[in-house]
Design goal:
39% helix; 11 helices; 8-stranded mixed beta sheet; elongated; 3 domains; alpha+beta; single chain; Nucleotidyltransferase, domain 5; 348 residues
Length: 348
């Protein structure tokens, strides 16, 4: 997909320079030649880059194949059929009225999608008195920021009535820390990998017919250990940092990873920081029920002098969701009776 987008951008720049010097037929032939050079899917890419219908590019391809004379008639300036949206001002609002109720995801996102097909939308618009084809509907949807996408597994079944409040809470916590130039990080243990001659999904350049030999089975007993990557994502800086261990995924390892991030990047990136906000999954080495995780964080708060706030996501959710439990370490050692944390606010 990335290669196609680059090709569209290159073609769009080329067409913007050369089109003003060509007549209508010459433009079609140029687009047809570019589509031929691209091969399969070239007509669609060229049409997107030139801002025309695919049928126009196909017509140019047919003209190339027909062997017609090089000279052709050029329309006068401003000639040709007007765009459907210009002729019918009510077309675009009518289309959006059909799409918006079934739109999924964040309505403010630049990437939006609809479950209705362009053909069905065109049929409904025609029934309403806006005569339009499926290709035009697709062009209008792309202009409005829509794209054709598949579905994704995001529904979690029954939702707690406080879920919306949970989202607002985590958002407020992040904004409050960012407003005072205090770091906000998201932590999680990444996929564990066996160490040894095992097959993985990565690829590398090798002489033809000489792939790297690996074991036929991934038995733990054949490995030299297990690599445990613990990721720390700096939300404000949009930067990732990974600490890899070979022992066990424990609370001590999780907090040590955060400590190493702070010494390597965090402390220098936020020299005036007084607080640290951590978001994490509800389970695992950094789970909200793990007392060792809380005790280790309390020790880190004492060591760094930071007020550390932790927000856990509800079970079954990941980094885009809000906390199941929240607690703070105000730079003091945990007492015997508080279980290693200063206070707990639960949203369960």
């Amino acid at each position: 997909m990335g290669g196609n987008e680059e090709a569209v951008q290159v073609l769009a720049a080329k067409f913007a320079v050369i089109f003003p010097h060509l007549d209508e037929r010459q433009r079609r032939l140029l687009m047809a030649a570019e589509a031929r050079a691209l091969g399969h899917g070239g007509i669609r890419l060229v049409a997107r880059a030139a801002g025309v219908r695919e049928a126009t590019v196909s017509l140019g391809v047919d003209e190339l194949d027909s062997g017609e004379a090089p000279l052709g008639r050029a329309r006068r300036l401003g000639g040709g059929r007007k765009r459907a949206a210009d002729v019918d001002p009510g077309l675009r609002p009518a289309l959006l009225a059909l799409v918006e109720p079934d739109e999924r995801g964040d309505p403010m996102s630049p990437l939006r999608w609809t479950t209705k097909s362009t053909r069905n939308l065109a049929d409904e618009l025609t029934r309403q008195g806006h005569k339009v084809g499926a290709d035009t509907v697709g062009d209008l949807l792309r202009e409005e920021g829509f794209s054709l996408q598949g579905n994704t597994k995001t529904l979690e079944g029954t939702r707690h009535p406080d879920r919306d409040a949970q989202f607002r809470y985590i958002s407020e916590q992040v904004k409050a820390h960012q407003a005072t130039a205090d770091p906000v990080i998201s932590v999680d243990t990444k996929k564990k990998e066996l160490i040894g001659e095992f097959k993985n999904a990565g690829r590398q350049w090798r002489p033809a017919g000489q792939p790297v030999a690996t074991r036929t089975h991934d038995f733990p007993g054949d490995s030299a250990g297990k690599a445990i990557p613990y990721g720390v994502y700096d939300v404000t800086a949009d930067a990732g940092w990974v600490n890899v261990g070979t022992d066990h995924d424990t609370a001590a390892f999780a907090v040590e990873s955060i400590r190493r991030w702070w010494k390597a990047d965090g402390g220098s990136g936020y020299p005036a920081a007084r607080r640290l906000l951590i978001t994490a999954d509800a389970g695992g080495s950094n789970g909200y029920r793990t007392r060792a995780w809380k005790a280790e964080l309390a020790a880190l708060a004492v060591e760094t002098g930071l007020e550390i706030t932790v927000c856990h996501f509800p079970p079954g959710t990941q980094c885009r969701c809000l906390s199941a439990a929240n607690y703070r370490f105000a730079g003091r050692r945990p007492g015997v009776h508080d279980g290693g944390y200063a206070s707990v606010d639960r949203f369960i």
